[in-house]
Amino acid sequence: MLKNGGSVTLKDVAHAAGVSLKTASRVLNNSSELRPETERLVREAMARLGYQPNELARGLKSKKSAAIALIAPNLADPFVATAIRSVQNVARSHGYVVILASSGGDVSLEKTELQAMTRRQIDGIILMAAASGKSDLAIPLKSRVPVVVIDEPVRGAEVDTITVTNRKAARAATEHLLGHGFRRILAVGARPHLFTCAERVAGYRAALRQRDVKKMELLVPHEADLTIDALAKVLAGPKPADAIFSLNWVCTVAMLRALNALEKNIPRDIALISFDDFDLAEVIQPGITAVRQPVSELGSRAAKSLFERIEGKDSSAPRKIVLPTEFIVRGSCGCGMD
Q1: How far is residue 114's CA from residue 260's CA, in Å, rounded to a whole number?
Q2: Topology of the domain covering 10-53
Q3: What DSSP character marks residue 198?
Q4: Does domain 166-294 have CATH number 3.40.50.2300?
Q5: Reported confidence tier of residue 55, pLDDT bands at 50, 70, 90
């Protein structure tokens, strides 16, 4: 029991360990200039007394918050949620916490969040940009806050960026459908202004050009615009699409609902490939053939890169890391029907 009856202070820890306050402070800050025996005594005193450091006070003194931020358009998105788990795992191993914020896909709100995180002395930021052509990293970069960008590169910003082989994977998926003999392949996507969508559309078009096949595209401003009526229109006429290449998992789910409402059988009436694997994709009958992104690795690589910058272990020029995807063949693409 403390004589003052209050919370345990670092001074109490120092007294219990028989060291100076300065020495106890050096242990708390993980100084490398301490004898192992001294550090052991102080750590044991901390545990025995139940000492909890005041992170806010430490942050004000050291100008470090022991926290990083992750800002994304939609924290509820399974893609984002998976990446968050990986980021948190890496952060915990460094003794850091992760503060989450949603931009809602709004560039102005994203800027507000970047300002708020910078003012709070966040040690680093991982950003899933709202829009690569409009997102602005000037505020954190001016304050020398390290930033790592995932998925959607920010144009004009010299920061570490981690993406996947969007164009190459989309081309390979389209070529797979062409290999089954499909020639009226409909690409379905949303928010074509985004880097990810644009790259996947480019890969789709490149595959068709090589085979001299005409493109068929349904690219809408937002996934909510992918209604049953919208799909019914492009599936009508004497030469409707015989295959669909969906450019993200939300589009895929919208297509599945629409095809079910239109009583279209997959793959007998129309084949389907999804860019993005998702929960239940292998349970649905037939299973959905998909391009699987390395989401967990995206998160962990982003966090590791960020901590290398925070800790000064990497002062090299900004890196552009591109991770490979995996093509998961199930039944929806027509495999097994040849």
Answers
A1: 42
A2: 434 Repressor (Amino-terminal Domain) (1.10.260)
A3: H
A4: yes
A5: low
